[in-house]
Design brief:
Blueprint (H helix, E strand, L loop, with lengths): L8 E4 H9 L7 H8 L4 H17 L6 E7 L8 E2 L2 E9 L2 E8 L4 H11 L6 H9 L6 E5 L1 H9 L12 H7 L8
Parallel strand pairs: 1-2
Antiparallel strand pairs: 2-4, 3-4, 4-5, 5-6
């Protein structure tokens, strides 16, 4: 039986997947795909996260910080070993914030852009980084809509968003919107 913590709980993604999804090694592509019954690692990872880990987090009575995401999900975060310096905050099983330690070096950004494909390369940004690297920095995105869901006790995001993207595009008179 799990002891009820009194403070926020900090779990690595590896620990959460081991405890709640029976994954021994979260960076083992084959194990994740097998347990999730998926052909793609990313699909398998997110299936296990949504179907096993997040429901288990909803049973924990304190905020939970999941940190050290596999490098494949690093976005523009710094990476140590096979894990990104990235976290997500869950309250009642709902992700409300996402943060990471930002890359600062020209070479690291260039590599990330090239991994995403040639169209993703922002040459102006890279030139600025070459001339003047970023200082150490971090960032957190807080989902106001998610906080509102928790405050109001609703489970569907549609219950707190006053309009859809499609309705907004129509209101702003974007007739050629692909939405």
């Amino acid at each position: 039986k799990r002891v009820k913590p009194e403070k926020p709980l900090y779990l690595t993604v590896s620990e959460a997947f081991r405890e709640f999804a029976d994954v021994k090694d979260v960076i083992d592509d084959e194990e994740v795909k097998f347990l999730a019954k998926e052909e793609d690692y990313e699909d398998g990872f997110f299936k296990l996260l949504v179907e096993r880990v997040e429901p288990a987090l909803s049973e924990i009575d304190v905020p939970v910080f999941l940190y050290d995401y596999p490098e494949k999900f690093s976005a523009m975060a710094k990476v140590r070993g096979n894990f990104a310096e990235r976290f997500e905050l869950y309250i009642a099983g709902l992700e409300v914030a996402n943060g990471y330690t930002e890359l600062t070096d020209f070479k690291d950004y260039r590599k990330k852009f090239l991994e995403k494909g040639e169209r993703a390369v922002d040459l102006g940004f890279l030139e600025l980084l070459r001339q003047r690297p970023l200082p150490s920095c971090e960032g957190v995105a807080l989902g106001f809509d998610r906080l509102l869901m928790l405050t109001l006790g609703v489970s569907k995001i549609e219950d707190v968003i006053p309009f859809t993207v499609k309705e907004l595009a129509k209101e702003l008179n974007f007739p050629s919107s692909p939405l």
